[in-house]
Amino acid sequence: MTPVSLTDVSSYLPGEPIGTDYYAGFATTDELRDSVMFRAPRWRHHVGPDESAIDMIERATAGLIERHGRGAITDADVLITHTQMPDMPFYGAGAGVAHRLGMRARWVLDLHNGGCAVFVLALKLARQLLVSGEGHTALIAIAQNAAGQVFDQPGVRCRAQAAVPGDGAAVGLVTVSDESPILDVECRSYGEYAGEMTIISDPPRKWWQAGTGEACIAFTEAKITKVLARGNRLVPEVAFAVCDRIGVKPNDIDLLVTNQPNRVFLRNWREALELPPQRHRDTFDDCGNLFGAAIPINLERAIADGQAAPGDVVMMAGFAHAGDFAGAAAVRWGGRR
């Protein structure tokens, strides 16, 4: 197969860090407040009130332009985007991102089903398009912007779930090269779980209908128990599948980079792969749950501070929503040029 590499990543966190004390003044009685799913991080970032997903992605791209030149972006053949909360409900940010960055890509695609593991799904799609001759460069752009919009609504910020998410954006540059080759990708969909993540409001209504009560994610103890069980199983399963195909033992992975819903998942995943904490990137206390942006933001930070060294096998893995998607991708990191 033609070698395709994840050549570089760059990220952006909006605004100043917001401490947990911000939520203390809003806290009310919540039957889920003691759930392991909602143990709050120390810090998180919130998208600005007038900051769009396209703004966030443009700011995340600055690092790639600085290191590789604007031409690496404007000349990219493929653009793949994902926005947690599209600024317009009828379409994603792909066309707007392409315009803002001056791109004339042959392929502009918006992904929504990958959720917290969407970066892995985008890597698989980008690699397949480039291998099939559809170009030489792809840009993957992910924006997580739900924390400062959905979870900071007055009627939602008092809930235990509100303090966990954080906002951020990241972009990945994928090229036909052997600089940092993508070794293998595993993506699995589980349609039987697709309807288990739902939105509620008080009084009840469909998410698009006008009303007085803000919408939020519907969590119950029963749902949380199921999601914890699935997440603990699905992420190691896809990581094991990739390890098996590339001939690397799980405990020989140099760096594990996952999505970061909570501390329990992070601990259980590295223990399942028999990895010490120093080989699993963990920014939960600094950034909270970054949803789909977590994997590329964590990878960028690991590269920047030397946790990912040239020659390292980096395993990226995660699952989405209530467990309807899971994916893992391994890269042999070649270092920044």
UniProtKB/TrEMBL annotation:
Residues 243-333 form the Beta-ketoacyl-[acyl-carrier-protein] synthase III C-terminal domain. This is 3-oxoacyl-ACP synthase. One of its GO terms (molecular function) is 3-oxoacyl-[acyl-carrier-protein] synthase activity. InterPro entries: ACP_syn_III_C, ACP_syn_III_N, Thiolase-like. It comes from the Bacteria. Gene3D superfamilies: 3.40.47.10. Keywords: Acyltransferase, Transferase. Residues 113-191 form the Beta-ketoacyl-[acyl-carrier-protein] synthase III N-terminal domain. SUPFAM superfamilies: Thiolase-like. One of its GO terms (biological process) is secondary metabolite biosynthetic process.
